[in-house]
From TrEMBL:
<dbReference type="InterPro" id="IPR036576">
    <property type="entry name" value="WRKY_dom_sf"/>
</dbReference>
<keyword id="KW-0238">DNA-binding</keyword>
<dbReference type="GO" id="GO:0042542">
    <property type="term" value="P:response to hydrogen peroxide"/>
</dbReference>
<keyword id="KW-0804">Transcription</keyword>
<protein>
    <submittedName>
        <fullName>Putative WRKY transcription factor 53</fullName>
    </submittedName>
</protein>
<comment type="similarity">
    <text>Belongs to the WRKY group III family.</text>
</comment>
<dbReference type="GO" id="GO:0005634">
    <property type="term" value="C:nucleus"/>
</dbReference>
<dbReference type="GO" id="GO:0010193">
    <property type="term" value="P:response to ozone"/>
</dbReference>
<dbReference type="GO" id="GO:0009751">
    <property type="term" value="P:response to salicylic acid"/>
</dbReference>
<keyword id="KW-0805">Transcription regulation</keyword>
<dbReference type="InterPro" id="IPR003657">
    <property type="entry name" value="WRKY_dom"/>
</dbReference>
<keyword id="KW-0539">Nucleus</keyword>
<dbReference type="Pfam" id="PF03106">
    <property type="entry name" value="WRKY"/>
</dbReference>
<feature type="compositionally biased region" description="Basic and acidic residues">
    <location>
        <begin position="90"/>
        <end position="99"/>
    </location>
</feature>
<dbReference type="GO" id="GO:0000976">
    <property type="term" value="F:transcription cis-regulatory region binding"/>
</dbReference>
<dbReference type="InterPro" id="IPR044810">
    <property type="entry name" value="WRKY_plant"/>
</dbReference>
<feature type="domain" description="WRKY">
    <location>
        <begin position="125"/>
        <end position="188"/>
    </location>
</feature>
Length: 361
DNA sequence: AATATTTGACCCAG
DNA sequence: CTGGGTCAAATATT
């Protein structure tokens, strides 16, 4: 029963998310076109409702969500991710906890997860219009049952140097080969992953513009990669240029920001970093042909809201993907799990966030 | 030489 | 036992 509820909650949330995404798109259209203030207001309200619904849903679940406060500085206190870490009253777990048996796997399991759906047009590919701001290193590829294309696995280039455990996997869509599902896991704790954010004390934390900042730099680099990849693809027809070219250096924008989530409760000597980076980076805005909603991410700014900024993310089942992907317009929906208090929303009706989140197991 | 990718082997949860 | 995810030796790039 526990699981069942989770599942249902997952799909429920998916629906809400979808609705919210659609509302956002609608808003965009209204913006571009001539819109009345009343119209904007309506859309805003609709979005607000979705947001609240999502939050309520999450709170209805007696899980972690504890208090955002204390976690902030905790290196290992780790606000147990919403995952059912403790959910399983198995005694073994307890026992094993003591022994630091490479709980690495355990650690990974707890990492937040969310999926993005990105459409890549040959043009954008050539232009190198994308990149989520991080550098990834491919560490594996696997043919997935039933899937037409292989899945590629990437991990942060700085895993070892900075103990950054973020990873992502890229799966080309069967139906629409121009779409890639990118599943991210874990938050980047590395620092220069995203060149944009210059050392200067985050000056632009105030709002929307940081968007542009990131975009530039990497693009060029990126394009090179892409070209070389394409070349490879051309000569290595073995697999039919499918995956590799693209999968290889791709990263996209939409990803939103970092989540906080502290997953390294165990050894990680640098656990300290966690806090800072929480949202250190925003992926590039990504001006996709159909993605006008580039600038939102208002919520991304942690400080903007007092909450410690703890977010955790993950998407539950695969169902979600489908639902989300439904809307082509290149909208991505990073999923976030906002952990701040509900009040926040109430106080600030304009508050909006692109993401949504929920948990799963 | 240093770093990144390719790939089959290996691990483990279901 | 099977499939998904990761490791790591062999290669390929830079």
């Amino acid at each position: 029963m526990e699981h069942r509820w989770k599942r249902e909650q997952g799909t429920l949330i998916s629906e809400l998310i979808q609705g919210m995404e659609l509302a956002k798109q609608l808003r965009v259209h209204l913006d571009t076109a001539s819109s009345t203030e009343s119209m904007d207001l309506l859309v805003q309200k609709i979005l607000s409702s979705y947001e609240k619904a999502l939050l309520i849903l999450q709170f209805s679940r007696p899980m972690s969500m504890g208090q955002p406060q204390q976690n902030v500085g905790a290196t290992s206190g780790v606000p147990e991710s919403p995952l059912s870490i403790n959910g399983s009253p198995r005694s073994d777990d307890l026992d094993k906890d003591n022994q630091d048996i490479r709980d690495v796997s355990k650690k990974r399991k707890m990492l937040p997860r969310w999926t993005d759906h990105v459409r890549v047009t040959s043009e954008s590919l050539l232009e190198g219009t994308h990149d989520d701001g991080y550098s990834w290193r491919k560490y594996g590829q696997k043919d997935i049952l039933g899937a037409k294309y292989p899945r590629s696995y990437y991990r942060c280039t700085y895993r070892h140097t900075q103990d950054c455990w973020a990873t992502k996997q890229v799966q080309r869509s069967d139906e629409d080969p121009t779409i890639f599902e990118i599943t991210y896991r874990g938050t980047h704790t590395c620092v220069h992953g995203n060149q944009p954010v210059p050392p200067p004390a985050s000056p632009e934390k105030q709002e929307y513009k940081l968007t542009n900042l990131n975009t530039n730099n990497n693009q060029q680099l990126q394009s090179q990669d892409i070209l070389s990849n394409l070349r490879k693809g051309l000569r290595v027809n073995t697999e039919g240029l499918d995956n590799k070219e693209m999968a290889t250096s791709f990263s996209f924008p939409s990803t939103s920001f970092g989540w906080l989530k502290t997953e390294n409760n165990s050894f990680s000597p640098s656990g300290v970093l966690d806090n800072n980076n929480i949202l250190n980076s925003f992926p590039s805005p990504f001006t996709s042909p159909a993605t006008p909603e580039v600038n939102y991410f208002s919520a991304s700014q942690p400080q903007m809201n007092s909450f410690g900024g703890m977010l955790s993310t993950q998407n539950s089942e695969p169902d979600l993907k489908e639902l989300i992907s439904a809307n082509t317009s290149a909208t991505n929906s990073p999923i976030i799990d906002l952990d701040f208090s509900l009040d926040q929303v109430e106080l600030d009706p304009n508050f909006q966030f692109d993401t949504q989140g929920f948990f799963s197991s």
